[in-house]
What we know:
This protein has 2 domains: about 1-135, Sandwich (Immunoglobulin-like); about 205-250, no CATH class. It is built from 2 helices and 17 strands. It has helices spanning about 170-185, 205-215; strands spanning about 1-10, 15-20, 45-50, 60, 70, 85-90, 95-105, 115-120, 130-135, 145, 150, 150-155, 155, 220, 225-230, 235-245, 250. The strands form 5 sheets. It has a 5-stranded mixed sheet, with no helix packed on it. A 4-stranded mixed sheet has the order 2-7-6-5, with no helix packed on it. Strands 14-15-16-17 form a 4-stranded antiparallel sheet, with no helix packed on it. The protein starts with a strand and ends with a strand. The model has no long low-confidence stretch (mean pLDDT about 90).
Amino acid sequence: MQVMAYRLNGDTSNIERVFLYKDSGATAGTEGDPITGLTNSSTGLNISTIAHNEAAPNTDTSAATSSIEAVGTLGTYSAPTSGFVRFSEVDATDMPGLYELQWEDARYVISSAIWLDIAISGVADLAPFHGRIYLEPVPANVQEWIGTAVTLGSGAPDVNIQTSDNIDFGATQKASINTEVVDVIRTDTVAELSAVPSATSSLMDKLNWVFMLSRNKITQTATTKTLRNDADDGNVATASVSSDGTTATRGEYS
């Protein structure tokens, strides 16, 4: 079997060329000689294709049913009638035995197909030809994600990883992460709170509250404890205070 070509599954406007030879019973010449003079209407000509995952030939064209058409212009693709194929000799003098075939695009768009087998036979003196066109998977388009354009930076895709399970960061990435963490702890500033944080507030607000209780001015009367803001021009929170002579109680800040 002859490997004819490697195509992407989904390629369009494909032109294939094959050499055809005489068989052992040729009436003229000898076995293995190039066979010339075949046309799309040669008596008995059959051209069949079948993908590796098809149960039967999907296209079986024969001159007897007029489903083989001539190539319009050699080297220029022209789609044949649906279900047909184009077939013509290239040059019997300078390239004897060479023929051009043009299938419709549908024969190159076969779900999950890995290859397409070709058979050409049926004409007197023609040695049956068997060829294979490999259909390669379509490469991933890194400029699109499920049909949506991907942002490019300096000509390269800006890729966001959907899951990071079992990914170990490299030394450079770890150093960058460490720098950012240090920056958050040592450099970034946070404004003081203007009210009491809730029980389910962020860790940052809870730490800020403890800091304010330790740093800011606090006043107290016989009944109320008050936390002042940093400028000492307003209250942040108050809590009731009381004593029964045995136990001093401070209520929850609000």
